[in-house]
Amino acid sequence: SAVISQKPSRDICQRGTSLTIQCQVDSQVTMMFWYRQQPGQSLTLIATANQGSEATYESGFVIDKFPISRPNLTFSTLTVSNMSPEDSSIYLCSAPGLGSFTYNEQFFGPGTRLTVL
Amino acid sequence: DAKTTQPNSMESNEEEPVHLPCNHSTISGTDYIHWYRQLPSQGPEYVIHGLTSNVNNRMASLAIAEDRKSSTLILHRATLRDAAVYYCILPLAGGTSYGKLTFGQGTILTVHP
């Protein structure tokens, strides 16, 4: 299994500002993922963060709005830039557990609850 | 990911079994069937997965239809802690899709004391 922590757990921000969310995994993983969960909705994949390469973004998400860093095999950050109230969501990171190359078992962080005023 | 269909909500009483259905009629021969659940105010957690045969683990059982077009997650004795949103997912395997999960709306399970 993998234990994933996120910081901050929640934040309230003003529109136009940026927030960087940190995700720490307790083991080395090749791939990490960032999801968004809008109020009352299911999770939507934002991007895949691979160590040593540029993040790969899903349709509807762009690097200028959600820049991602992946400096090593246990850590990643997601920045929500130039925020608007529509960015109010829970942001979650995930990573596959050890030995899950076949089964795609994923472990998730607790999420960062962002409110933009 | 292949499309899955789940009921929006289900209810159960504590200590009774719960059968959560999932239809996946477009499943391919190599698609695994995964179940995750999301407890209130938490990130999703993996529950179980299977390919063809029924599977059991400490959390639940997964019954897979012989034609694989449907599956059922079975909680043998529901507890209040099992109240969550349950997601049935058929992740794409390998290549650039590895690890990506497409979450539908899932089934909201309510457990009554």
List keywords for this structure.
heterodimer; A: 117 residues; mainly beta; seven-stranded mixed sheet; B: five-stranded mixed sheet
Could you give the topology of this structure?
The complex is a heterodimer of chains A (about 120) and B (about 110).
Chain A: E1 4-7, E2 10-13, E3 19-25, E4 31-37, E5 43-50, E6 56-57, E7 68-72, E8 75-80, E9 89-96, E10 106-108, E11 112-116
Parallel strand pairs in A: 2-11
Antiparallel strand pairs in A: 1-3, 3-8, 4-5, 4-9, 5-6, 7-8, 9-10, 9-11
Chain B: E1 9-13, E2 18-23, E3 33-38, E4 45-50, E5 55-56, E6 61-64, E7 70-75, E8 84-89, E9 107-112
Parallel strand pairs in B: 1-9
Antiparallel strand pairs in B: 2-7, 3-4, 3-8, 5-6, 6-7, 8-9
Describe it.
Chain A has strands at 4-7, 10-13, 19-25, 31-37, 43-50, 56-57, 68-72, 75-80, 89-96, 106-108, 112-116. In chain A, the strands form two sheets. In chain A, strands 2, 4, 5, 6, 9, 10 and 11 form a seven-stranded mixed β-sheet that branches. Chain A has a four-stranded antiparallel β-sheet with strand order 1-3-8-7, with no helix packed on it. Chain A has no helices and eleven strands. Chain A is mostly beta strands and 117 residues long. In chain A, a hairpin with a 5-residue loop joins β4 (31-37) and β5. With 113 residues, chain B is mainly beta. Chain B is 0% helix and 42% strand. Chain B is built from no helices and nine strands. Chain B has strands spanning 9-13, 18-23, 33-38, 45-50, 55-56, 61-64, 70-75, 84-89, 107-112. Chain B has a five-stranded mixed β-sheet with strand order 1-9-8-3-4, with no helix packed on it. A four-stranded antiparallel β-sheet of chain B has the order 2-7-6-5, with no helix packed on it. The termini of chain B are far apart. The model of chain B has no long low-confidence stretch (mean pLDDT 91). Chains A and B meet through β5, β9 and β10 of A and β4 of B.
